[in-house]
Each structure stands twice: as C-alpha cells, then as structure tokens.
C-alpha cells in the first residue's frame, strides 16, 4: 500500500506540531512546501509570496511539492507530508481559476487516508510566514476538504487534542 501520508487542513490548526511529533518518533517527514517558499522568497526579496502574488506562490509551492513527492517515493517506509501537492494545486486552481487538481491527482497519489486538522481558533496564530487571518484559514480548510474528497481520498478529521494524542491517533489509524 502507498506509504506517503498527507496531513493537511486548516492553517494554524496544529499540523506542523503534529508532524514534528511524528519526526521525533522516528518517522520521515516532509516539511510544508508553502512555508519553505515563503522563507526562500523573504530571504531573496522575491515576490512569490501569498500576500503579494498568490498565483506565483502557489505555482512555486506546487513545483516544490511535486519534487518532494518524487523524492519521497524512493524512501523506504512511511513518509508523512505537512501538506502536499494537492494542497498547492487546490490553491492554484482557486486563485488562478485554471484546472490544476486533476493533473496532479493522476500523476501523484498519496495514501488513500488523509488526516485533516480542523479550524481551531484557540491555537490559531499569525507569524511572519502566516499573515492571513483565521477566516481565510477556514476558507482554505473548506477548499481542501472538497479537493481531497473530489479526488477520492478518505478523510480522517483529527480531534482537537494535544500533539501526542493526535500522533497516537494517526499511527493507530494507519496500523489498522
């Protein structure tokens, strides 16, 4: 079975903390493409930033996510993704108003079960790489839920629990 597992969902919902817990437990983890694009663009003075040029940002995130996927298929065992190609394609499709989901879905399939973190206002916080607000994050979550469902993935909505409990749920679901 496909061992490339996506953890997606609402910005500021605890994905990165969950992925870090899985990394500490010895699992291979791929960091979020969007955050890596933002760091690169800020360091270089670039404009492919979500608050400057969302289409350029989403295109770069999609390219990076595709490279991540192609590298991960060669890694033995399970690999967890902090977002993935579908997330970037959904953003590109939404903001550029051009089809992007079907293309990536046909060429890059992840594990059929996707873990989604829901909006969680109590822990949502902006930072230099996340400048959008909570309601933008909720709208993004809704688009991602629809995108993954449209592409035939099963979705496991993670409860609003601590990081260790969430990691236990993810690993337990994958073991069954």
UniProtKB/TrEMBL annotation:
Tree of life domain: Bacteria
Coiled coil regions, renumbered to chain: none
InterPro entries, per the entry: NadR/Ttd14_AAA_dom (IPR038727), P-loop_NTPase (IPR027417)
SUPFAM superfamilies: P-loop containing nucleoside triphosphate hydrolases
A Pfam match: AAA_28
Transmembrane segments: none
Domain NadR/Ttd14 AAA stretches: 5-166
Protein name, as recorded: ATPase
Species of origin: Ancylobacter dichloromethanicus
Taxonomic classification: Bacteria, Pseudomonadati, Pseudomonadota, Alphaproteobacteria, Hyphomicrobiales
